[in-house]
């Protein structure tokens, strides 16, 4: 065989491989375009459409940032989401530190059980929490067994249909998830590094601030990003145990959809997507920064 023939056969083999690869990836690509890309594009277009004339309009976004109810719902959603992120990561970090640096039986037991909430369906968990935190729920019924104690401490929790109940439920969902990520980060810190720092006279506070925090901050940011994205658009928890006003954007979106205000619902969806994009940018920046550190 000549070199030209071998080269032509090699090109044919490469073409067949590419054709086979396209054949296998084609259905997945078409499916992705159908159920992900097209709905996003369609939602953005509808958010700028006047439902009466079909012309381009900013009326839906003007409504979101001028209507008293819509503005209150936006701030309410951001407030609950930020509080959830801060409390979840703070508690999860403390728990992860305890699980990583403690060898007690309690730590081992918690390390075995702390992921259990992740395996309970969200709807079941919310209804179970309602049974406990409602004013006529388990806590109040137990207090009735001791009337004097109930009168003295007012054991009615008052956590249902208000933001405190939503945040409590969000913590129940997100603390195990954040703890799992942070524990994995802390487990990557070698004991020899910490022992070496102690040998040269570094105290616990200095080791924590100068070593543990920098080595785990990337994973903390990742946990914050995913918690923010999952809560900014949450629906089940605020719908079942939230108040009527203000409402989180997921519930507000559902209400607009039920009222057949599809273009306004599309604008709310785009707004939620923009909020999520901010946290996604933080996530991407954190990963790119890590690559720069590795190069350095």
Main beta sheet strand tally, sense and closure = none
Q: What's the mean pLDDT score?
A: 83
Envelope shape? flat
Instruction: Provide the CATH top-level class of the domain at 45-115 and 174-295.
Output: Mainly Alpha
What's the multimeric state? single chain
Approximately how much beta-strand content do the residues carry? Answer: under 5%
- Global Rg: 26 Å
Number of strands: 0
Explain what you see.
The chain is mainly α. The protein has a domain at 45-115 and 174-295: MetI-like (MetI-like fold, Orthogonal Bundle), CATH 1.10.3720.10. The chain has helices at 3-47, 59-66, 68-101, 105-113, 122-133, 138-143, 147-153, 163-187, 191-199, 204-232, 236-241, 249-258, 262-295. Helix 2 (59-66) crosses helix 13, helix 3 packs antiparallel against helix 10 (204-232) and helix 8 (163-187) packs across helix 10. It is flat, with a radius of gyration of 26 Å.
């Amino acid at each position: 065989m000549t070199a030209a023939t071998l080269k032509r056969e090699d090109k044919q083999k490469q073409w067949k491989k590419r054709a086979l690869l396209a054949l296998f990836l084609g259905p997945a690509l078409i499916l992705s375009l159908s159920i992900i890309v097209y709905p996003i594009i369609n939602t953005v277009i509808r958010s700028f459409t006047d439902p009466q004339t079909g012309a381009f309009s900013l009326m839906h976004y003007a409504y979101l940032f001028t209507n008293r109810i819509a503005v209150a719902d936006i701030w309410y959603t951001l407030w609950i989401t930020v509080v959830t992120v801060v409390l979840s990561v703070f508690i999860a970090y403390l728990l992860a530190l305890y699980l990583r640096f403690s060898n007690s039986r309690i730590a081992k037991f918690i390390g075995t059980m702390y992921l259990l909430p992740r395996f309970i369906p969200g709807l079941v968990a919310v209804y179970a929490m309602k049974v406990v935190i409602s004013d006529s729920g388990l806590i109040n019924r137990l207090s009735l067994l001791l009337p004097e104690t109930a009168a003295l401490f007012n054991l009615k929790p008052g956590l249902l249909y208000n933001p405190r109940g939503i945040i409590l439920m969000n913590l129940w969902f997100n603390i195990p998830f954040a703890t799992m990520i942070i524990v994995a980060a802390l487990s990557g810190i070698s004991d020899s590094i910490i022992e070496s720092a102690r040998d040269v006279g570094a105290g616990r506070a200095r080791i924590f601030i100068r070593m543990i925090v920098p080595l785990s901050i990337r994973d903390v940011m990742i946990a914050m990003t995913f918690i923010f994205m999952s809560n900014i658009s949450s629906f089940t928890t605020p719908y079942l145990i939230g108040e009527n006003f203000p409402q989180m954007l997921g519930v507000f979106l559902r209400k607009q959809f039920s009222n057949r205000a599809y273009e306004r619902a599309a604008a709310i969806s785009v707004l939620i997507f923009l909020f999520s994009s901010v946290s996604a940018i933080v996530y991407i920046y954190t990963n790119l920064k890590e690559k720069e550190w590795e190069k350095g």
